[in-house]
Amino acid sequence: MSNLPKIAWIGLGIMGSPMSENLIKAGYQVTGYTLEKEKLDRLAAAGGTAAGSIAEAVRDADVVITMVPASPQVEAIAYGPEGILENAKSGALLIDMSSITPQTSVDLAKAAKDKGIRVLDAPVSGGEAGAIEAVLSIMVGGERADFDQAKPIFEALGKTIVLCGPHGSGQTVKAANQLIVAVNIQACAEAVVFLEKSGVDLAAALDVLNGGLAGSTVLTRKKDNFLNRDFKPGFRIDLHHKDMGIVTDAARNVGAALPVGAVVAQLVASLRAQGDGGLDHSALLRAVERLSGAQV
To answer: What region holds the 6-phosphogluconate dehydrogenase NADP-binding domain (predicted)?
Structure first.
């Protein structure tokens, strides 16, 4: 029998499925629960165990990991008679890797403490590709001892793993990450439209730009999306819209001005209003094309 902690994984979406599979590859026993049967079948095919409920998944787990879309979903799976806090064993470690509001993480940690459950907020950056390749950046909030215990698990999922401060700090850093990513994608999208309208070889231009100061992980990851107009979701506009709401609200609460971020947040919102919410966030290119006169 393995001496590794038993893991319950709640939420097997675009990110959660490959992440849970990487833990299985690393030798962990993973029991998962999600709403979609095909995702449970995928977990079982990868060597995990499918559970019929949250309660069943977490009952014997040493570590519970959650990866769901937003604060309401975290609250739905954490609280209530069928939720994590009522069914996980005392002493378990709950690692929430969703991207939610910092306050939700703080409140969850307080509620869990009353049940004898420790909590880390540990949102990630790197998208679907980073999840598949196990090279995610993981920003963590919580106690040092809990972080140290979870470090081997994080190392099976990512490459850059940092304790950023107390509960909620991981989510605050993730909000800043999403601000930077959105503004970066928007700048890249504007450059793409400018280059194409100028008659430049776009592939060549993006290659040379990515080799200089304008280069970025965003451009490296999204270059082919721009070139091929391939907006299959790695990270959906809908989710980035949620994250821009988190960062603009959090910034307002602490008195930080986000003039460029506010504009990009509105551009993301406009994409959703035009039916593009299910596309990858690189589809910000479509918004720039529309503004530039193209029929998209």
So the answer is: 6-165
